[in-house]
Amino acid sequence: MDLPGSIHNIVVVFLGSVLIFGGLGVVLFTNPIYSAFSLGLVLVCISLFYILSNSYFIAAAQLLIYVGAINVLIIFAVMFINGSEYSNVSRLWTLGDGVTSLVCTSIFFFFFFFTNYYYPRYVMVRNSLDYKIKPDSRTGPNKLCSTNWNSFINRFLSSI
Q: How far does the signal peptide extend, from start to end residue (predicted)?
């Protein structure tokens, strides 16, 4: 999907935050039905990321296979289990939930405050197996760097 840069960034940040909170919901909800619905939300957001990266077939396959089949199967399996044992849970917040929340929150704040968010946009120019990364007009002429893919391929093949 070709969106302007600022709108694309806003959508990515929104989907990323929904993914984080949905993943926390999968782990922290004590009711398995709520956890399964949260998993469905996470899988839908992943398919929206595929749509943002112009991978429409992968997004459709993600929705049909994971959300449409596997997540619905999980929800049906959980609904066939006796639901009364989950409604009698008195502790809604356990020690594991607190530790998980603390670790995830600290990782989020670490990456939020200590990550450089400036990512210049580069244009790939193909020249046989040698790819030269040339900067966009917005990054300036002094950001030119080159990558030789032959050395990467040779190093990978020699390690096998």
A: none
